[in-house]
Amino acid sequence: MAEQNKMKRNIGILDWGIVFSVIVLFVAIFIPSVIWEEEESVKTESRRRMAIINDAESFYYELTSEYTTNGEELFSLVEAAMDSLTADSLFVQEQKINLNNKIYEVNMNRGFDVRVDTTFTKSQELQRTFKDTSYQISMLAADGGESTQKWVKKDELQFYMDDSLFQSVDDTEIKDVSEKFTDYARNKFHLIDDLLSCPLTGEPYILEIDDTDDSYPLFMVKSPVPEDYTERRFGIFKFESGKHGFIKDGNTSWAELD
């Protein structure tokens, strides 16, 4: 009897040992994969933010013919210029923008607002249905022959009615028409100050201007995170940031790093 109890106890210990081993194996496989995903996610988001800053800087240079290392000023001016042109389509060429008690002299190109929107805002493909009205009209022949009939759109009708050969509107047709279109306004993107900071450390990105060549200054935005940056996860695991890289003169360093 004692021998049986001892055997059962040994089996129980063995079972628990197997369960514990499975748990350890699961942790050893699962947690590192979660950490790797986090490393890639943070790196991807950091590079996305640097790309946004770099694109905004290009628009700033277009407006002012110079770069800036002031991130808040950068975002504010580009947003203000875009909003001004959206509100007034004649707000082009040499203009002045009063922003935060400072007057900026800018050169606004037509379509600047659209280019900013399409650069930063993720478009949505939508479908809309509307009533389409067509008119059947009669027109005299230019050579004096018999009149002819044709269908024209609503926005074309007045053009034909002003023609000396126009005779009459004979019929009207209204039908539902569906069309696909690209919408940039629904999820409109804004240059918020949070994008100026690294998602990992919260430190601001480093903005620099290389003006060694006065005729061709270069702008660079780089991550504030050291390449050897690490954090502990769950006590025994390590989060490694890796190389988040930089963008200089529009060229990304991670094209070579990855």
Explain what the structure shows.
The protein has 258 residues and is of the alpha+beta class. Helices cover 38% and strands 30% of the residues. The chain has two domains: 33-123 and 185-257, no CATH class; 124-183. The protein has helices at 2-64, 71-87, 112-120, 157-161, 254-257; strands spanning 93-99, 102-108, 124-139, 148-153, 166-183, 206-210, 218-222, 230-233, 237-240, 246-248, 251-252. The protein has a four-stranded antiparallel β-sheet. The chain has a three-stranded antiparallel β-sheet with strand order 4-3-5. Helix 1 (2-64) packs antiparallel against helix 3 (112-120). The model has no long low-confidence stretch (mean pLDDT 81).
Helix content: 25-40%
Q: What's the assembly state of these chains?
A: single chain
- DSSP summary: helix tally: 5
Number of domains: 2
Mean pLDDT: 81
**pLDDT < 50 stretches:** none
Strand order of the largest sheet: 6-7-10-11
Return Rg in Å.
Answer: 33 Å
Overall geometry: elongated
The ordered H/E elements are HHEEHEEHEEEEEEEH
What percentage of amino acids are in beta strands? Answer: 25-35%
Number of strands: 11
Structural class: alpha+beta
* Euclidean distance between termini CA atoms: 66 Å
**Biggest sheet statistics:** 4 strands, antiparallel
